[in-house]
């Protein structure tokens, strides 16, 4: 009987439904346990032998005993009533699938494939709902005994006279289950259907009941085996591919989840519990006695009036929640996963009529505060993680307060208070009606498209054509549907005629043009919020203007006033339309004053030439790109003799560079004299010796010059790079450097090599007095860019640029101050520089045009501007010298070889050398002469500080204690013997470094440097 196979799915509610359901489950079980009738670990699996799907445990328990050994009442389920109706005397099993499934299983075991009419009749029992014994008979009606299998005792053998065919041989075991044999005697009244492997495994994991037969369990008669095998194979392959796909997806999702939860920065740094983004930020200037005075007060451009959550009516809160985040109070983690998954699916399968972001109120607040709103999966992930963090650390009422006060309501209105005043003229929010609250809530989704004034009743954009009216009506319906308002209130709000008007918001904004220094403070604080906290620019800007911050600036009002007056004097500049910039800084990185440009400033956060302009540095690059790094490596020393000659392959196979005025160098010269005269040939050879890569590394890492280019592909395909001799030795860089960064680099020469980041502020605190910046005190600590001895010797070398007879900055001297400095002029005269320092301050000055233009043959105007500002800044300050170090010695050197003199050298001069590196003269031999006593380093009133001169000679080495006040350096026109020069120049590589065709510049190319005027 095939019907017993097809409709006898145990525990099913309907045999025909079982046949339809069988396909998927059978495919899975076939994949896991083999084809029907196939042995696997002693178990058999058939297509329709699923047992007790609702309670497999009870089924397994039952079949661990011989049939008929226990009644169902012994294993009754508490969900199954066990009382016996008086009319039947039998248990009533009202809907217990686990019991009926077991009985139906026994029936099918006994009656499978039966050809008798009795089998059909019995198998029809419980067809509609799968329940035995009586398919819910009417009270008082008893079924015939022949139609009941087992009766009240469950699965006992049929009553006498109801046998269905001959029984197997008496006493012969026909099956085993966990050691219990079921013999023919147990089935004496039942015809056993001989099916090979007809035991039942099912979901309960039952062992097979072994027997003999010719029909595999679950396989109908008369159907070809080959087709079924092909179908099973195809199904198995398809199922395998499906399962592999599922596993792959799970692995990918799991790995992605590990990445998200382990590596995505979810922390939202600012504490919403204390923030009120309506505060005014105040900048302070500090005096020497520690007192403070307000420098400037700043407020953002947004119109915002902050109100507490207790001042915001519930009808407005409910309107926004009903429309934007109906499960706000349920989603305590700040994420609505249902909407999120729906939104993700909607990206691929359009299940919504319009794009839905699935963002909760918490997520929207984060997006508003951070400005992080790009349409990318990573942004959404960041937003979700941040929302979880905020929700875990912030009460929901605080989230709502921040949201209601920061959300955009169109027309420049930020926050509910400003919007209420603008659209309805109501300053008391509790006077807002339900309809007015819904109108404001309707704006939030798209302020541009739901502007109630621009689009009150439709005619909006193509994306949102309905306008404010239709969306506010939807909002009112949601409020009614979610139980926030009654039906009466809903109908009244729909009927209300709302009157909108444009309010005046100008009273909330005060415009004032800031100074260049204040602009620099704004940029610095916003930049540091971004780098130290990871904020994006929009959020950092919003926090600065509306966070009520208190900022201590580094400004010195006297210095700033002097700069302002100097830059306002037209006679200080060679041309009426020329531009200029300056930065004055102390030796701890504090910017005391700056000039961002000439002429009247008309905009806030305008282009600041002191901090933003990138201009070719010219010869000011030589000390920091060539001499300083080489001295640090002991590749040069004070009096080392170098060739004052062009190198091969300077520019497209030509020799170069030339010195100032196109003069071709010749002979040799000491390092000190080359720097004093600002020769071009020597620094090129020095960078060639230490390699351009080393110079580039030193500039970018030790001195933090950020504008240099390592490698970049231009729009025309050219490869740009500053790793070449022209950029690093002569300042012909790809883009240039800034006045601010050059000032900080030169400061290292006046403070024994310490580099400080140039700053315009020292401290930023919030409304609660907590320090926000610097976030980490380590960030403002100095780093040792140069060793003390290198910086000290470089300071003394740069002082000869001001004091030397051939120094290019002689006009910068004032008073009795020690001054170090370096001029800079680009080859085409587009840019002029002077960077100089005193023991108190260091300052850089630039003059040129925003669009490069030739300055013609003029004296360097930067020296005049620098001197005017610095001399005024030092008025009344006590004289002091640059810091000294015991790591530097004052000693004689041989004028023939340039090397530190021995006792046998007859012609010497004096200079400054490292105690750790003083290679004795190899030409004359003998013991190294003792170091000399250092000249006085403290200038006094009426006298100049004692510095080495450049013209005095000494015909014989004096005693080690004899004072020598003037060293002699070799003239470029009177070189020592070539052999001696060769000995002292062994560290200089004879091979010319290749110069990038995209960045190298000849003596006549744009941006290169030459000798100074």
Task: Describe the protein.
This protein has 1013 residues and is α+β, with helices and mostly antiparallel strands. 32% of the residues lie in helices and 10% in strands. It is built from 27 helices and 22 strands. The strands form eight sheets. It has a five-stranded mixed sheet with strand order 4-3-5-15-16. The protein has a five-stranded antiparallel sheet with strand order 7-6-20-19-18, with helices on both faces. Strands 1-2 form a two-stranded antiparallel ribbon. A hairpin with a 3-residue loop joins strand 19 and strand 20 (841-848). The longest helix is centred in the first third of the chain and has 39 residues, at 225-263. The model is unreliable at 1-221 and 941-1013 (pLDDT under 50).
Shape: elongated
Q: How much helical structure, as a percent, in the residues? A: 25-40%
Q: How far apart lie the N and C ends? A: 116 Å
For the largest beta-sheet, the strand count, sense and barrel status come to:
5 strands, mixed
Radius of gyration: 46 Å
Distinct helical segment count: 27
Q: Give me the count of strands.
A: 22
């Amino acid at each position: 009987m095939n019907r017993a196979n097809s409709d006898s799915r145990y525990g099913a509610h309907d045999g025909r439904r079982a046949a339809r359901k069988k396909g998927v489950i059978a495919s899975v079980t076939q994949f896991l346990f083999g084809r029907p009738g196939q042995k696997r670990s002693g178990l058999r699996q058939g297509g329709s032998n699923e047992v007790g799907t609702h309670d497999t445990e009870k089924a397994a328990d039952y079949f661990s005993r011989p049939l008929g050994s226990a009644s169902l009442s012994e294993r009754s389920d508490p969900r199954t009533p066990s009382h016996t109706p008086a009319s039947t005397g039998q248990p009533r099993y009202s809907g217990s699938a686990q019991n009926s499934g077991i009985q139906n299983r026994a029936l099918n075991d006994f009656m499978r494939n039966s050809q008798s009419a009795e089998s059909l009749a019995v198998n029809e029992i419980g067809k509609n709902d799968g329940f035995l014994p009586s398919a819910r008979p009417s009270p008082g009606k008893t079924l015939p005994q022949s139609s009941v299998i087992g009766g009240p005792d469950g699965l006992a053998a049929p009553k006498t006279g109801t046998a269905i065919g001959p029984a197997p041989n008496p006493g012969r075991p026909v099956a085993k289950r966990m050691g219990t044999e079921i013999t023919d005697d147990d089935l004496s009244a039942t015809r056993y259907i001989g099916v090979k492997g007809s035991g039942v495994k099912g979901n309960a994991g039952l062992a097979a009941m072994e027997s003999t037969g010719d029909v595999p369990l679950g396989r109908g008669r008369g159907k070809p085996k080959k087709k079924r095998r092909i179908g099973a194979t195809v199904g198995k392959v398809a199922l395998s591919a499906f399962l592999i796909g599922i596993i792959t997806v799970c692995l990918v999702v799991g790995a992605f989840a590990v990445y998200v939860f382990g590596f995505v920065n979810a922390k939202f740094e600012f504490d919403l519990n204390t923030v009120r983004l309506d505060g005014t930020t105040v900048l302070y200037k500090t005096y020497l006695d520690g007192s403070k005075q307000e420098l400037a007060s700043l407020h953002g451009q947004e119109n915002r009036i902050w109100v507490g959550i207790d001042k915001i009516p519930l009808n407005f809160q409910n309107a926004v929640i009903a429309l934007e985040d109906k499960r706000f109070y349920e989603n305590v983690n700040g994420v609505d996963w249902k909407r999120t998954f729906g939104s993700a699916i909607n990206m691929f399968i359009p299940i919504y009529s319009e794009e839905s972001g699935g963002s909760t109120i918490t997520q929207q607040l984060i997006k508003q505060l951070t400005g992080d709103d790009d349409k990318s999966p990573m942004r959404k992930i960041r937003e979700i993680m941040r929302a979880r963090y905020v929700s875990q650390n912030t009460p929901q009422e605080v989230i709502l307060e921040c949201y209601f006060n920061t959300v955009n309501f169109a027309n420049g209105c930020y926050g509910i208070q400003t919007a209420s005043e603008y659209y309805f003229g109501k300053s008391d929010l509790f006077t807002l009606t339900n309809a007015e609250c819904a109108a404001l809530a309707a704006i939030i989704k798209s302020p541009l498209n739901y502007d109630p004034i621009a689009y009150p009743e439709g005619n909006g954009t193509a994306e949102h054509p309905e306008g404010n009216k239709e969306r506010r009506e939807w909002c009112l319906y949601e409020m009614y549907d979610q139980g926030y308002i009654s039906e009466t209130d809903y109908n009244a709000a729909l009927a209300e005629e709302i009157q909108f008007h444009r309010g005046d918001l100008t009273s909330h904004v005060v415009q004032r043009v800031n100074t260049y220094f204040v602009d620099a403070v704004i940029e610095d604080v916003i930049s540091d919020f971004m780098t130290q906290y990871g904020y994006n620019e929009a959020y950092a800007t919003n926090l600065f203007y509306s966070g009520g911050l208190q900022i201590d600036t580094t400004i010195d009002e006297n210095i700033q006033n002097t700069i302002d007056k100097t830059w306002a004097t037209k006679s200080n500049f060679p041309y009426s339309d020329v531009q200029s910039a300056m930065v004055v800084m102390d030796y701890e990185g504090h910017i005391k004053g700056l000039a961002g440009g000439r002429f009247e400033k008309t905009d806030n956060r305008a282009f600041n030439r002191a901090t933003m302009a990138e201009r070719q540095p010219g010869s000011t690059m030589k000390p920091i790109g060539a001499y300083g790094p080489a001295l640090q490596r002991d590749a040069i020393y004070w009096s080392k003799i170098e060739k004052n000659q062009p190198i091969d392959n300077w520019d497209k196979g030509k020799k170069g560079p030339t010195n100032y005025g196109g003069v071709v160098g010749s002979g040799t010269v000491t390092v000190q004299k080359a720097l004093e005269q600002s020769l071009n040939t020597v620094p090129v050879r020095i960078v060639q010796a230490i390699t351009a890569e080393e110079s580039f590394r030193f500039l970018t890492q030790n001195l933090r010059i950020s504008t240099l280019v390592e490698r970049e592909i231009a729009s025309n395909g050219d490869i740009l790079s500053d790793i070449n001799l022209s950029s690093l030795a002569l300042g012909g860089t790809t883009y240039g450097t800034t006045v601010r960064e050059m000032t900080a680099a030169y400061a290292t020469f006046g403070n024994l090599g310490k580099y400080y980041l140039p700053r315009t502020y020292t401290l930023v605190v919030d409304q609660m007095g907590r320090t926000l910046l610097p976030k980490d005190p380590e960030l403002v600590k100095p780093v040792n860019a140069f060793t003390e001895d290198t910086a000290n010797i470089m300071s003394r070398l740069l002082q000869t640029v001001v004091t030397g007879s051939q120094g290019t900055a002689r006009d910068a001297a004032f008073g009795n101050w020690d001054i170090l400095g370096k001029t800079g002029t680009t080859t085409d005269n587009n840019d002029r520089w002077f960077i100089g320092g005193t023991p108190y301050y260091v300052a850089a000055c630039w003059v040129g045009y925003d669009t490069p233009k030739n300055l013609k043959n003029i004296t360097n105007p930067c020296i005049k501007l620098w001197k005017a500002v610095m001399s005024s800044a030092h008025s009344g300050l006590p004289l002091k010298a640059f810091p000294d170090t015991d790591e530097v010695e004052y000693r004689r050197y041989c004028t023939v070889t340039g090397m530190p003199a021995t006792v046998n050298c007859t012609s010497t001069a004096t200079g400054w050398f490292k105690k750790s590196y003083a290679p004795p003269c190899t030409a004359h031999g003998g013991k190294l002469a003792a170091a000399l006593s250092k000249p006085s380093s403290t200038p006094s009133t009426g006298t100049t500080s004692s510095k080495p001169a450049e013209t005095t000679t000494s015909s014989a080495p004096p005693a080690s204690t004899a004072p020598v006040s003037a060293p002699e350096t070799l003239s470029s026109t009177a070189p020592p013997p070539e052999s001696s020069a060769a000995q002292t120049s062994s560290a200089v590589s004879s091979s010319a470094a290749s110069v990038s065709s995209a960045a190298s510049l000849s003596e006549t190319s744009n941006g290169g440097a030459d000798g100074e005027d």
